[in-house]
Amino acid sequence: MKGHRYVAFVAGVGIAISACAPGARAVIVLGSGDPNFNDVALNPPAGALANSGSQFEGLFNSFLGTVIAPNFFITANHIGGGVGSVFTFRGADYTTTATYGDPGGSDLRIWQVAGTFPEFAPLYLGAGTEVGKLLVAFGRGTRCGPAITGGGSPAGYAWGPLDFTERWGINVVTDIYNDPGYGPLLHATFDAGAAGLGDFECHLSDHDSGGGLFIQEAGVWKLAAIHFTVDGPFYDAPTGGSTFNAALFDMRGFYFDDSSGGRMLITGSSPLPSGFYSTQISSRLSWILSVISPQDDSDGDGLANLAEYAFGSDPLSPGSAADPVVAIVQTGADNFLAITYSRPKSTADLNYLVEVSADLQNWNSGVSFTTVVSDLDQGTTRSVTVRDNRSQAENNQRFIRVRVTRP
To answer: In sequence order, which residues have a C-beta less than 8 Å from that of residue 74 and are 6 or more positions away?
Structure first.
């Protein structure tokens, strides 16, 4: 991934959170050698980690997805799938009827299903507050593979066989990495117990894209991210040699792809752990809410979630700053009713239509009824002003509105 020294996109990443051999100083999950150790079905999160998200995970296209509304689940875009595919949740099959990719460019994709889910995950709301918090991650990736050494010392573990078993693990959000192509990603590193996480510290590996990452907010476990990618692949020589993917608690001594198409040696004065990256939910809340609950007014300010998204306002913060503004504009000697609205450039999935009426019953649009006065580029948004074609002199009672629809 452009902009980070070690990240490379791996289609279908997963959580390699099976336990490795006992007695190792650091493993993908530091526990027993039993692959059932953190199997969701056999040994789910318990105690303070009970109900930390596994109850909202379902199976889609051999990956995971997370239920987020009565008729919607969310997963990673790059895992594919099509309308008519089946999502399995708590033993029941739900057929997908529509899908929504993120026009903002993230790897998130929302799917609508026929039928109603019995329960759905709450969404993490506090954008930027995820750093430093404990996370619980779920996935269907590989087991732990053989140990890897760097300079004669243990450096981590290779990805093992893929068995499609849903497992879980914990980590801490290290930082938020803002990828120039895919947007904000929650980043966690495999630092081999340095954070005091104990037996269940985890890393991602093959085939676990789409799995959910949960963080507590106000005492409730909420969906905070969807798994996307990992650091790697790595090489053991500057040219030729072996290419491998691994959960490394020290990448030093290995090589990675550099921007020139060659390889660069990873160096440093202290251990450099590899990590994983999951797409942040909180930064895409406006779009998500506009899809799963478009007519709801989540913040009670009179604008539905779809309108909040359409005009670039925060659906969770009451305010009227983004409301369209109605005014009178003069053209020649005549005055016309006009409306000005803000249109974020990221809302490519919406249609905007200005309509006029004389009685609030019959509405008309198009060049015969309205004229664009201006369409100004304001960076991340456009400010659009459209006027009625009938002047006040022709008809004193006129109404104007912006109608927003999603195709």
So the answer is: 65, 66, 68, 108, 109, 110, 111, 223, 226, 288
